[in-house]
Amino acid sequence: MSIKALIFDVDGTIADTEETHRQSFNAAFLEHGLSWDWSRREYAELLRISGGKERIAVYIESLRLQQQEKARLKGLVQLIHATKTRIYGELIADGRAPLRPGVARLIGEARAAGVRLAIASTTTSANVSALIGAQFGAEAWNWFEALACGDVVPRKKPAPDIYVRALGMLRLPAHACVAFEDSVNGLQSAKAAGLYTVVTPTQWSEGQEFGGADLLLRGLGDADAPLAAGDASLAGGPYLTLEGLQQLHAAALRQAAA
Ligand code: XBP
Ligand code: MG
Question: Could you confirm whether 37 is annotated as catalytic?
Answer without folding.
Answer: no
